[in-house]
Fold this protein.
Amino acid sequence: MRPIITVQDLSKRYKLGQREVGYQTLREVLVKAVSGSIEGVRSRLNRRYPQNFADEESELWALRDLTFEVQRGEVLGIIGRNGAGKSTLLKILSRITEPSSGRVELYGRVGSLLEVGTGFHPELTGRENIFLSGAILGMRRKEIARKLDEIVAFAEVSRFIDTPVKRYSSGMFVRLAFAVAAHLEPEILLVDEVLAVGDQAFQKRCLGKMGDVASEGRTVVFVSHNMASIEALCNTCLFLSEGQFVAKGQTHEVVSRYMTTDLPPESASVSLSAHSGRRRGSRPMMNMVTLRDDTGTPTGAIRMGSSLSVAVSFACDAGPILPGLGVVLKNAHGVAIFTVTEGLVGGNSVENRVASGIVSCALDNPPLLPGRYSFDLYLGDTSGARDVLDVVSDAISFEVQAADVFGTGQVPAPHNSLIYWPARFAFTNGATQRDEVEHGRLNRG
Amino acid sequence: MTFAENPPAFEEPTVNDYRPSSQGGGAPGHSEIPQRPLVVIKSGRRWTSLNLRELWAHRDLFYFLIWRDVKVRYKQTVLGVMWAILQPLLTMMIFTFLFGHLARVPSDGMPYPIFVFAGLLPWNFFAAAVDNSSNSLVGNSALITKVYFPRLVIPSAAVGAALVDFGIAFVILFFMGVHYNIGLSVGMLMLIPLIVQMTLFAVGIGIRMSALNVKYRDVRHALPFLINVWMYATPVIYPVSFIPDRLRWILVLNPLVGIIEGFRSAIFNRPFVWSHLVTSFVIVIAVLLYSLYSFRSMEKSFADII
């Protein structure tokens, strides 16, 4: 069977801090001589804007020599860490950006959903936005009019359909925006991590809707960090690492390979200065993270139920800050178990701005099941606008080893649950309960 | 003992049913995969065709973008679209007072208020269209980085939105014509091609400026100034005859001269200066083609540099 998408030797190169190489005319050279000096002044003025920090870096391969095929009806998940090139790939497939080299052939109409609410205007009503957003996503006016009722019902906003969306709650906004996109009928649907928004019940319905799309023989390419939704939705998976092909195959196999190979090995401390998980646009300030167990010893593994602390050292070239640390603990599926920030729990001991130092966060007896976990780290300036300055995903990972936390010799199994929880069971004499039931019956009768 | 080996919660039979192996010859109701790809994506097409067919396929989007711009502009205003009438009307009154009464600028024998308004109407359209259009790509950067559609739709829709205001302001011209007892004439039919020519010129300048603005935000600062200067190089407040003969050919290189002169000839039923009109038309088409092709060759990098 012939594939519906073929990708051959696809590469995308970004020139960091400069514009993309390519066409250049005499006029542009002349303009550049002038604008070069303007840009120099501007970059000095705008030191706080992150896009300028990588000026010295020459180029970055977001994708390199990628080759694969997608069959019709395939629901392909694309997995990989931050910066692996997943989003760049989707942007090329949806023709938003052009590859530097290589070739893609698409044998079907493409619809892409890279963001929820693309083209929504806050001043317009729900109904008006359905038409606008539908047209932007590539629907014809008649098609939208025909599906209008269905879209409104799916989004559950019928009462507010003639209210400007700026008065919507964020939940209503997301539901309406997704409802429009979910009613696209392309042969190839490209979806970026858009299901991360919205409440649980709605996410489930979206997954269901996407499942419907797949059942109609349409092809879906889906990017997510959440292994649970990848496994629920995709039959095949493509695993990228640093812009390059690692594996493609059945979801279970590829996901387990991703989870065993793509996390950094557990160790007590990891250098963050040139960490591959650093989010694009960050200002590299965190340079080392260290995990310690309840005795204060650096470690890459703890026992279930024992305490853990995370210490991050940082140095800030651009001037002193009031450091605030945010920590997201994720399991091996990429599911966030909890998020704590200094602003949330309080107790920042730093009173004056500092240019460097160590911020640490103690986690008392986290109820984690055996398995591998990783931390996303956020460092920000808590003075003023609470800017997040530096973000590193999967900065460090560690292992939780099975332990007899309940004192019964039984270890809770990590199926189907994210954490364990201490509990007490009690027994009440059966006769008493029967009495109560009968008493109740008497009352009712 | 990982989820991957034993994922009871996520094992949904509905998903398994759609594996390609069980897909067979494709789902019913869907045509076979075409022999040739619908879309080929590769780099290095420096000289792309205009691809007007694709533009036509997105005409609904064009309509909705114009509609959004017009609708949003007058949302939460008390006077609403009255602004589209008030602005040129007040400008006309001020100009009539300053240039007609105080400076005594000649108007080739036409009543100065309607003379200046016949110039202001196309000029205001042009200035607003170019201004809207040049900022349109940057203003819609969220769309450009998230969805694909022919990028030309955005700056052209911005011109379209200005055309709506032009249409509303045109009503004033009608009432002024009645007030000054200007009879209907066949020459007024010339207004139609003149409006088309004026629109094409605004599109030509607008799309070029919008593309430049993506790369060099200097455009945003330079353009309002240039438009101001441009107005004085255009016979809005004075007639073409005001310029000495030997300098007139330079003036005529500005396509708006032919257009505005044409507007006045059509309204006052006077002979058209065809040489000016043709010069204007040729320059408009040249500008438009140049802008379209340069836009096409720049548009693929928009998402990366915006």
Remarks:
- Residues 1-30 of chain B have pLDDT under 50 and may be disordered.
